[in-house]
Amino acid sequence: MYVMIIAAMIFAAGTACADSDLEIHTYANPLMPIVGSDLTYTLLARNNGPDEAIGVTVTDVLPLDASLISVSTTQGITIDAGDLVWEIGNLGLAWVSINFIMTPLTAGQFTNTATISSTSFDPVLTNNAATISVTAVDEDQAADLDVILLDYPETVSEGSKATYTILLTNNGPATALNLEFTFDASPLTLGSFQSAESTSGFCYTLINTCVGFGCLYILSEPLEVYCSIDSLPAGETATITVNLGASLSAGEILGVSSSISSGTTADPDISNNIDTHTTLVTEYQIDPSDDDSGSSCFIATAGWGKGTCSR
């Protein structure tokens, strides 16, 4: 009898001490939606344990002046009762997510706040709420940015220079402000970088930010070029030229990617904000007409390419 009572007390104590640290994160895409277009919210809920959480519920305060279009979730059900209620149910040590699409009806700031709770004891409450804000703009205040890799080599021989020409165009209708362009070339490192210039704004790499011996380590970092443009009026184009030393072996593939974004101007179409290309590295070919009496030759590539050859 006493054994049963003690066992029941131990079980009850263990149940009362069950902890479930819940956390919630909220994301929005895009951060500057166009009035009347889709705005997608994503909520990520997690139980950090150590125990299973019982009766987990997320309440999301929906933005005003926006219409709820659709909802999808990896677990549980949703109830649209003014606010969005996501009834997850019991949750083990795992992540679950929900996506819902809304349409802003007016221009202005939209704030979304989500809160997670359960009937289990939560020892950490500071991660039980998350808020994100977006700014909806009218279409005439947006700028459709377009990036095109206009000129690029299909192949490049070992030790040769590779030149890429990129066009950045603002299709309007508004002037695009605070543009950030990124060019990366994989698997090259900054040791293969030669130069970059833009007809508008300025270009730089991590090499421009290093000091002293730190620059030696920078050369082994991935090759990424950045260009900043303060403004690009509607209908205008900026041209960026990037020169690289193809310090790769024959048969390797050089993959380049160019992307553009604005930190303060909405873009109604982000599908044209990136362009990619691949370049095949081929064996160095000696020009038979360039005979130098059979002596050895040096491939001059300003230190960016291969070393010597012989014939």
Write a brief structural summary:
The chain has 311 residues and is mainly beta.
Give a description of the structure:
The structure is a single chain. With 311 residues, this protein is mainly β. It contains two helices and 21 strands. The protein has a six-stranded mixed β-sheet, with no helix packed on it. The chain has a five-stranded antiparallel β-sheet with strand order 5-6-3-8-9, with no helix packed on it. A hairpin with a 1-residue loop joins strand 5 (77-81) and strand 6. It folds into two domains: 2-137, ntegrin, alpha v. Chain A, domain 3 (Immunoglobulin-like), CATH 2.60.40; 141-298, Immunoglobulin-like (Sandwich), CATH 2.60.40. Residues 1-15 and 292-311 have low confidence and may be disordered. It is globular and about 75 Å long. The termini are far apart.
Number of helical segments?
2
| The first-level CATH class name of the largest domain | Mainly Beta
Tell me the count of domains. 2
User: CATH superfamily assignment of the largest domain?
Assistant: ntegrin, alpha v. Chain A, domain 4
One letter per element, helices H and strands E, the order comes to HEEEEEEEEEEEEEEEHEEEEEE
Q: Provide the structure class.
A: mainly beta
Rg on CA atoms, Å = 28 Å
Can you tell me the overall shape?
Answer: globular
Distance between termini?
Answer: 98 Å
Which strands sit side by side, in order, in the main sheet?
11-19-18-13-16-15
Architecture of the largest domain in CATH? Answer: Sandwich
Portion of residues within helices: under 10%
Low-confidence stretches: 1-15, 292-311
| Biggest sheet record | 6 strands, mixed
Give the strand tally. Answer: 21
Mean pLDDT: 86
Examine the coordinates and then state which fold CATH places here, giving the name of the CATH topology of the largest domain: Immunoglobulin-like
What amount of the residues lies in strands? Answer: over 45%
